Amino acid sequence: MAKAFAGQKQEIDGEGLTKLLQAVLSRLSQDDVLTVELVQDEVERVLMESGWYDVAKAYILYREKQSVLRRLASTRGAGSANGATWAGMKTSMRFSAVYRRILVRKAIL
Predict the structure, then answer these.
(1) What is the C-alpha separation between 35 and 7, in angstroms, rounded?
(2) Residue 9 gets which letter from DSSP?
(3) I need a surface site. Which of 9, 27, 50, 66 has the fewest CB within 10 A?
(4) CB neighbour list of residue 83: distance below 8 Å, 6 or more residues apart
(5) Interior CA angle at 56 toward 100 and 22, to 5°?
(6) Cα–Cα distance between 75 and 53 in angstroms, integer?
């Protein structure tokens, strides 16, 4: 999370970051099988619910970009002649369903 704040040139002290992390951890059930996706989804939710919309948006877009790049790399690795360009990937990116719901609820979208 610290990198997400730094990337948006937003300052948050250690105490604030700790509170956000505690909020994320409190949302994760001990019965859940922890996955990177599950933790990242909770980070998104906590950032947005805490009012850090710019940081959350950048975090979501970064996750989606990395996902697209991984898919592209695996497709190319399989020998596909996929001619996707960064511009094509960028236009195919979409906000996560969670982010969309919160934006609609906040009347931003």
Answers:
(1) 24
(2) T
(3) 9
(4) none
(5) 115
(6) 33
Reading the block at residue 49, the tokens are 């619910």
What CA–CA distance (Å, rounded) separates 19 from 14? Answer: 9
Give me the residue label for tokens 């906590």: 46
| Tens-digit pLDDT profile for residues 50-89 | 999 999 999 999 899 888 888 888 877 654 444 445 444 4
Smallest Cα–Cα separation from 20: which of 52, 46, 48, 51? 46
pLDDT of residue 54: 94
pTM of the model: 0.64
Backbone angles phi, psi at 44, to 5 degrees: -55, -50
| pLDDT attached to residue 82 | 47
Structure-token pair, residue 96: 């996560």
Asked if residues 93 and 68 have their Cβ atoms less than 8 Å apart, the reply is yes
